[in-house]
Amino acid sequence: MKTNDLTTATLVALLLLAAPVMVQAQFTYTTNNGAITITGYTGPGGAVIIPDKTDGLPVTSIGNKAFGESTNLTSITIPSSVTSIGPGAFYYCTSLSNVTLPTGVTSIGQDAFCYCWSLISVTIPTSVTSIGGSAFYDCTGLTNVTIPPQRHQHRGARFLFLHAPSQRRDP
Questions:
Q1: Which residues does residue 108 pair with via DSSP β-bridges, in sequence order?
Q2: What does the angle CA 81 – CA 99 – CA 47 come to, to the nearest 5 degrees?
Q3: Strands 57-62 and 53-54
Q4: Which residues contact 86 (CB under 8 A, 6 or more apart)?
Q5: 23 vs 170: CA distance, rounded Å
Q6: C-alpha span between 127 and 120 (Å, rounded)
Q7: 121-126: long-range pairs with CB below 8 Å, 24+
Q8: Which of 32, 40, 44, 152 counts the highest number of beta carbons within 10 A?
Q9: What backbone phi and psi angles, to 5 degrees, belong to 55?
Q10: What pTM does this model have?
Q11: Distance from the Cα of residue 161 to its chain's centroid
Q12: Which DSSP string corresponds to 24-72?
């Protein structure tokens, strides 16, 4: 009987030690040509850090609506390996207040941060060459936007920040 109790206790301890590993596996993804595209998020929200590699492959893009409607997401850190943020990637993440866009991102898709009402500030890195229409549409909390001068192809440029009381700063 004591051996059985010890085995049960050992099993419970091992499960508790393994829990953080399972908690980190909160992304769904696809593999294409040796690179990873994040296609979904299943975690509880809060501050999320996207890994630079998954299964030994680089994470290079965030897919269409991958984090869409993750209303408990408060902060997102995107690794420098990511070059593309897909359409609606963070659509309707109403609690998202902080996003770090690394140098390396070259495109931000249409509606990528649309309806992120809590987003306060965004700095577009100089590596970005394309921003889709309505990328920051209705980000009503956005008060500080930094965009590198003359480096972007804007689709629907007048709608990029529509309804955002922003102050544009060109470095």
A1: 85, 131
A2: 95
A3: antiparallel
A4: 37, 61, 62, 63, 64, 65, 66, 109, 112
A5: 40
A6: 21
A7: 121/145, 122/146, 124/148, 124/152, 125/101, 126/151
A8: 152
A9: 55, 35
A10: 0.77
A11: 18
A12: H--EEEEEETTEEEEEEE-S--EEEE--SEETTEEEEEE-TTSSTT-TT
Give, for all 171 residues of the chain, the pLDDT tens digit. 455 555 555 544 444 444 332 334 599 999 999 999 999 999 999 999 999 999 899 999 999 999 999 999 999 999 999 999 999 999 999 999 999 899 999 999 999 999 999 999 999 998 998 889 899 999 999 888 888 775 545 554 444 555 555 444 444
What are the percentages of helix, strand and coil residues in the chain, rounded to 5? 15, 30, 55
Helix (H, G, I), strand (E, B) or coil at 104: coil
Element (H, E) at 154: strand 153-154
The single-letter code of the amino acid at 136 is F
Pair of tokens at residue 171: 């470095």
Q: In angstroms, what CA-CA distances link 5 with 9, 13, 16, 17, 19?
A: 6, 12, 17, 18, 21
Separation of CA 109 from chain center: 12
Residue 73 CA, chain-centre distance (Å), reads 9
Pairing of strands 53-54, 107-108: unpaired
